[in-house]
Amino acid sequence: MSAIISIAGGLFWCCFWGFVTDSIIKNKGYYSNWFWWGFFFGLIAFVVALCQPENKPSTNQPLPVESSKFDKSDAGKAVMPTDDWKCSCGKMNPSYVTTCTCGVQRDDVLTDDSYAQEIGVDLEEEARKKEGERKEYERLRNQAMRFVNCPKCGTKNSNKREICVNCFENFADEKERLKKLYNL
Prior knowledge:
Layout: H1 2-27, H2 35-41, H3 43-51, E1 85-86, E2 92-93, H4 106-109, H5 113-119, H6 123-146, E3 147-149, E4 156-158, H7 172-181
Antiparallel strand pairs: 1-2, 3-4
Helix pairs in contact: 1-2, 1-3, 2-3
């Protein structure tokens, strides 16, 4: 009978340390499960959990800023890199994300002039860049309508040909690829 009480007491004590250790880790901002560390290692796991640094963003301290990029009036403000963008839902998105998880497109958010000025995006520059990309696409499309570069030797051939004038390579597949790419 005393063996059962000892085992039950030992399990209770292990569960106690498991829950205490796990709750300390959760309060420090970690999302890993430390219950089993506390269960098996007890007081040692508890001390290790206490020594873990906080994993929560500090709300009292400003983000560090480089003095070369910002003037003194920006000191103390949270600084967002200009490539990242903030959705209208409030979520911060990296520059490579074009659609927020809420479904809003990056371009839709950046059309608001006040927000664009806030994060340092020049809307006129963005429009010039898009216009340049559109003109380059049109130039390549017009070129693809007239010429096909041989994939083997790179010679520019008339779009009416299917065999290269230089190396006699058949480039019908390249013509089909260009037709699909430029919707010809």
